[in-house]
Amino acid sequence: MDFIYILSIVVAIFCVFVAVFQVLLSLGYPLGEFAMGGYYKILPKKLRIVSALNALILLFMGFIFLQHTNVLNGFGFLSTNILVWVITIFLGLNTIANLTSRSKKERLIMTPLSGFIFILCLIITLS
User: Which residues of the chain have pLDDT under 50?
Assistant: First the structure.
């Protein structure tokens, strides 16, 4: 196994971790202070739907990186070169958004998490 292969597995694991967090938000768990600006402890219904969609997107992001580094094979129809750049840029912007959040909890927890995933994705994308 090479370094990039392992990094993509780590990225996928972190995407699953954050997806589980988003599912918990969508189910009404009182974790809203860690997400979406921290305006709500329990997200309102519309934002719960957004969290559920975010969970699916995060799982897709992890899948794309596994496909890009050939951890998963058999999905050759899916070109990942552009997608990994889009995801990496998105994660960079997401890290900045978390850093500027009014929620102290979001800044302290989600910013480093998002930043870490962004750096890993950038290393993979540039390799």
Answer: none
